[in-house]
Specification:
By secondary structure, this protein is an all-alpha fold. Helix content is about 90%, strand content about 0%. The protein is flat and about 130 Å long.
Amino acid sequence: MSIELKELGILGLIISVATSAYTLYQNYKAKKELKETTDKLNLSIDDISNHTKVDIEQRMIDKAVERAVEREVHRATVDAVAAVKADVHETISKNVKKEIDAQYKNLTEEVSEKISDQVAAISEDALENKVIPRVEAKLQKRGEERIDQTISEARSKADSALSAVLGTYNSISNVAGKFISNMSGAGNDRTISFKM
């Protein structure tokens, strides 16, 4: 039996070596065919590019250059306009702020003087005839509103107190009614009892 196993092992080894050799050969053959095909394809591409003349008209080249120049000019123009616009805005803002700061003091003095003149021009009689009746009317209205509010609050408090008194009266009435009914139902027995 050990001889048969040995022979089987040798046979298996031979088959493995033969299979590996065959696989390596097939791999080598596929690589070689791929390289030959690639080389032929490269030669064909090189041959086509060497023998084919591509003619681009000068008119097309000029048009492409013109478009590229227009794009660049447009981009440069937009950038320049944006820069100038920002600079002008900043300059105007600074100048306006300086002018406002410079004129502020003069304006406040002029406004104060004009207000003082107008207040001085108001006569006392005009104040008495126009302002005092208005103030009196407003104070009277405010007083009436306060009186109305006080009356409303007093009514509300009186209603609450009356409700509390009525509640107490009803409770006393119920207790008295129960007491009297207990007294009259007891007959001549004068025992008084309360139930809760």
